[in-house]
Design a protein that fits this description.
Elements: H1 5-11, H2 25-33, H3 47-57, E1 64-66, E2 73-75, E3 93-99, H4 104-115, E4 119-121, E5 124-126, E6 130-134, H5 140-153, E7 159-162, H6 166-173, E8 182-186, H7 191-200, E9 204-208, H8 212-224, E10 230-233, H9 239-255, E11 266-268, H10 274-286, E12 291-294, H11 299-312, E13 325-329, E14 338-342, H12 345-358, E15 362-367, H13 374-379, H14 385-395, E16 405-408, H15 416-422, E17 427-430, H16 438-446
Helix pairs in contact: 1-2, 5-6, 6-7, 10-11, 12-16, 14-15
Bound molecules: iron/sulfur cluster (SF4).
Iron/sulfur cluster is lined by residues 12-13, 15-20, 22, 25, 28, 42, 44.
Length: 447
């Protein structure tokens, strides 16, 4: 059960020493009750209090990491039902299923699809994150051959080993030693043997049940065998079931602090129709799935799903920003034009993309306006003549240029005079209002 702020306060040292960053123990206790801080911030808390509070203050959805290294993916740690309340924390892991009944060419193609799935979108690298190998054949030797292939060809990709056969699980997991894999397929029938295999291989345990009640009982049993890292599947397959079960699980974990369902959720949405499957993956992303396993990873599908996932898992209270600096587009020379814009990610990527399209090498000065777009930043007093002049002076770009001309966005033409006044010896040229006019603008100047 969750403890109230006052109940937590009673267990704290009550010295108001402020080492936790809060002015009083009571303020800290209140934040702890809302799960907006963690107990380890108080260095003086007693062992007894840690024992009692540790369980109560643990995140409602257990944090778990799948895989190791740069491509490892975090799951869980969610604290809200709706993204506008705070934010969603760890983006849904997209996993591509490879079956041991797929022919060799199909298996190779799927591995290749995962390895080549990465794209850069507004400064973030997005990809199909994991491979789920499935023991469709029921043959342990066949399954092991697939595990070996994936471990060799996609060594750094996080892996889900899906089987209900402890023998097949054991031989397959042998190829992912030290890689933090997930063993999916623990049921009430194979529980003890599978958990033993998972523990030996240091694998996360993926449990599968028929409905939420059976699922809660199963996670409790797995926990009683000494396993903490669990991923849960309620058996939901239809879209309506996925929506219902995932929502009930998230509600139970967050609103009721119901520990047996406080784990990352895995959904299996494989369908013959790729468009329908894409919709179901989207449902999983929007509604609380930590992992969605899909049957194909076409480029068009990835693009739609990556975009959706990125939008849902972006903090709605923090605009996406890029670093303030002078970016070189192409290979600019001292005679190349200098343009300026703000550091809202989307603005930067659209403007830099259009400069690239123009094939005219240029410098792009990107000014920190707290992630606001040009007009908003201007209206908020963050993109002003004086601030632009300061930024240009401090950037040191003057030393790299033979000219003293700054091209500003057409929407803030009004700033020309103020910039010229503060930036002595410079000429301000008003560029296009819309980024899509930049190529024509730059080419006509270069001609
Ligand atoms: S660090 Fe601990 S003892 Fe000090 S104010 Fe914070 S909660 Fe109280």
């Amino acid at each position: 059960m969750a403890l109230s702020g006052v109940e937590i306060f009673k267990l704290l040292p009550k010295t108001n020493c402020k080492k936790c960053g809060f002015p009083t123990c009571l303020a800290f206790a209140m934040k702890l009750a809302q799960r907006q801080t963690s107990l380890d911030k108080c260095p003086d808390v007693s062992e007894e209090a840690k024992r009692i509070l540790g369980e109560a203050s643990a995140p409602p959805v257990r944090p778990i990491t799948l895989g190791v290294g740069d491509k490892a993916v975090k799951m869980g740690e969610e604290t809200v039902l709706f993204r506008h309340e705070k934010k969603f924390v760890n983006p849904t892991v997209l996993a591509l299923e490879i079956k041991d009944t797929d022919d060799e060419a199909r298996q190779d193609q799927k591995i290749e699809d995962v390895l080549t799935s990465e794209i850069n979108r507004v400064g973030q690298l997005l990809r199909v994150d994991a491979i789920c190998i499935t023991n469709e054949s029921g043959d342990a030797a066949k399954f092991e051959a697939l595990a070996k292939k994936v471990s060799e060809k996609a060594a750094d990709v996080p892996v889900i080993v899906a089987t209900e056969d402890p023998e097949a699980a054991k031989v397959a997991l042998g190829h992912f030693s030290g890689k933090n894999p997930l063993l999916y397929g623990v049921t009430s029938e194979n529980l003890e043997a599978m958990v033993s295999v998972a523990k030996d291989a240091k694998a996360i345990v993926g449990v599968k049940a028929d409905g939420l009640e059976a699922l809660s009982e199963l996670t409790e049993k797995v926990k009683s065998l000494g396993v903490e890292d669990i991923v849960i599947d309620s058996g939901a397959k239809k879209g309506s079931q996925i929506l219902e079960h995932n929502t009930l699980i998230r509600r139970a974990a967050i609103k009721k602090n119901f520990r047996p369902l406080g784990y990352p959720v895995i959904n299996f949405v494989q369908r013959d129709d790729p468009l329908y499957e894409t919709l179901l993956v989207g449902l999983g992303i929007a509604k609380y799935a930590s992992i969605v396993v899909m049957s194909s990873a076409e480029k068009w599908k990835n693009l739609a799903l990556f975009t959706l996932r990125q939008n849902i898992y972006t903090d709605p209270q923090v605009p996406m920003q890029v670093e303030q600096k002078i970016y070189k587009i192409g290979e600019p020379t001292p005679d190349s034009p200098l343009l300026i814009t703000t550091n809202f990610s989307l603005t930067y990527f659209i403007v830099s993309g259009e400069i690239e399209n123009s094939k005219v090498p240029a410098y792009l000065a990107v000014m920190d306006c707290e992630g606001l777009s040009v007009l908003t930043a201007w209206a908020a007093g963050k993109f002003t003549g004086a601030k632009i002049a300061n930024f240009i002076k401090e950037s040191g770009i003057e030393k790299e240029l033979n000219h003293r001309e700054l091209i500003i966005p057409g929407y803030v033409a009004i700033l020309s005079g103020a910039i010229e006044e503060k930036l002595e010896g410079w000429k301000v040229t008003v560029g296009p209002r819309e980024a899509n006019a930049i190529p024509t603008f730059l080419r006509s100047r270069a001609a």
